[in-house]
Design a protein that fits this description.
- This protein has about 400 residues and is α+β, with helices and mostly antiparallel strands.
- The chain has three domains: about 65-95; about 120-215, Glutaredoxin; about 225-400, Glutaredoxin.
- It contains 15 helices and twelve strands.
- It has helices at about 1-50, 55-65, 65-85, 90-100, 135-150, 165-175, 195, 250-265, 280-295, 300-305, 310-315, 320-335, 340-350, 355-365, 390-400; strands at about 120-130, 155-160, 180, 180-185, 200-205, 205-210, 215, 225-230, 240-245, 270-275, 375, 380-385.
- It has a five-stranded mixed beta sheet with strand order 2-1-4-6-5, with helices on both faces.
- α10 (about 300-305) packs across α12 and α12 packs across α13 (about 340-350).
């Protein structure tokens, strides 16, 4: 009987399990019904929003408008436009021209509309030293840069040695002080980019000369009426000619170096100082140095003014009376140099050395000087500040010659 009971219970369990399984199998149907009901609710709400009595006219129009049809039409138009633009060259050119003319965009249409620019031939005569390989190399690089930087430009160069009849005639015609010389003709004004380099040209006796830095000097600035320190420049083995500005920081940095050279070779080296007016208060300060030179205090005055460059900077910013502020610095510098400050200012106000400053500046420009400091050590040119070791070696090499 016990066994039967167990079997009976087992049978009961199996029936119960079957019922449970049957219920689990029916569950998905209930989920489907729930999803259908939710979908029906959403659809019903959507229909209510579009058809309800309280809905607005714009809402009902929005529900009925064929949006997908409009979107498809727009895509079709865009696609047709792209095809038309890509394959119709005439339309493409006209469209690009229109857009460029209105300034709306810069459109690169390639060879369909661009006209090839005509090449400009720049005729150039070059006077140089044919025996100086470095000079020839530098000129070649210069010409290459011209053709590279100026669009559609070809340089037609005519080379003339400095000792040839043509070269000597060109040097005389232009009164050139150094080599190389780059000369072109009036046709250069027709160059499409002429305005970009017009300032680098100067007209001399009907020729147009390019500004350049000298590599070989045919002559050096004169000594007449020049202020100098050390040996007499007419007798010295080495003559240092400096174009200086008393507001130039690099000139100030070179001053102690030159002083050392002069002290070491006082009998053989002459330092000739030529003032170079860069504008502003330069001329007044340089006249003050020349006025101090009349009292035998030139070197001390130059050193004192250099030391007061920061004070001079502040003086020029004096909104009340900058001239008076600068004169106060000049007077103080004269005192430090051991000169009579009142006499120095009286000399400056009288313009005693004004013409001298103007002439030395113009002379410097004729030798290619465009900035300060600029040095001529015998016939060698040095532009800008130079390392003390290099400067000293150059002087010693010249002394050995």
């Amino acid at each position: 009987m016990a066994i039967k009971k167990v079997a009976s219970e087992k049978s009961t369990v199996e029936k119960s399990t079957k019922k449970t399984v049957a219920k689990k199998k029916a569950a998905p149907k209930k989920i489907d019904l729930v999803e259908k009901k939710l979908s029906a609710v959403v659809d019903e709400k959507s229909e209510d929003a579009c058809t309800a009595k309280g809905s607005s006219r714009s809402m009902r129009k929005s529900c009925n408008f064929p949006w997908w049809g409009l979107f498809t039409l727009v895509l079709a138009l865009v696609f047709a436009s792209v095809l038309l633009y890509q394959y119709n060259k005439e339309f493409r050119a006209n469209f690009s021209s229109m857009m460029n003319s209105t300034g709306m965009m810069q459109w690169n249409t390639g060879a369909t509309t661009a006209k090839p620019a005509e090449q400009f031939t720049m005729n150039m005569k070059i006077v140089y030293n044919k025996d100086d390989a470095k000079q020839k190399e530098t000129i070649d690089q210069y010409l290459s840069n011209v053709e590279k930087n100026l669009q559609n430009t070809k340089v037609n160069a005519t080379w003339m040695d400095k000792n040839s009849p043509e070269g000597l005639a060109m040097i005389a015609q232009l009164n050139s002080k150094f080599l190389p010389i780059f000369v072109t003709d009036e046709a250069i004004k027709k160059h499409p980019q002429f305005q970009l380099f017009a300032d680098a040209l100067k007209e001399v006796n009907g020729a147009y000369v390019f500004n350049s830095e000298g590599m070989e000097y045919l002559s050096i600035p004169g000594f007449d009426n020049a202020t100098f320190i050390g040996a007499d420049p007419t007798k010295a083995k080495v003559v240092i000619i400096e174009y200086a500005s008393l507001t130039c920081h690099y000139c100030q940095s070179m001053q102690p170096i030159v002083d050392k050279v002069i002290k070491a070779h006082a009998k053989d080296v002459s330092w000739v100082v030529k003032m170079y007016d860069r504008g502003g208060i330069d001329s007044r300060l340089e006249q003050a140095a020349e006025c101090a030179a009349d009292q035998g205090k030139f070197n001390g005055m130059v050193d004192a003014i250099y030391a007061k460059q920061s004070d001079l900077g502040k003086a020029t910013q004096d909104t009340k009376d900058p001239k008076a502020a600068v004169d106060a610095v000049i007077k103080d510098a004269a005192k430090q140099a051991g000169a009579n400050g009142d006499k120095v200012l009286a000399c400056v106000n009288a313009g005693t050395h004004a013409d001298k400053i103007t002439k030395s500046t113009e002379e410097g420009k004729s030798f290619g000087v465009v900035g300060t400091p600029s040095f001529f050590v015998n016939k060698q040119f040095l532009g800008g500040a130079v390392e003390e070791a290099d400067f000293t070696k150059l002087i010693e090499d010249e002394l050995k010659k």
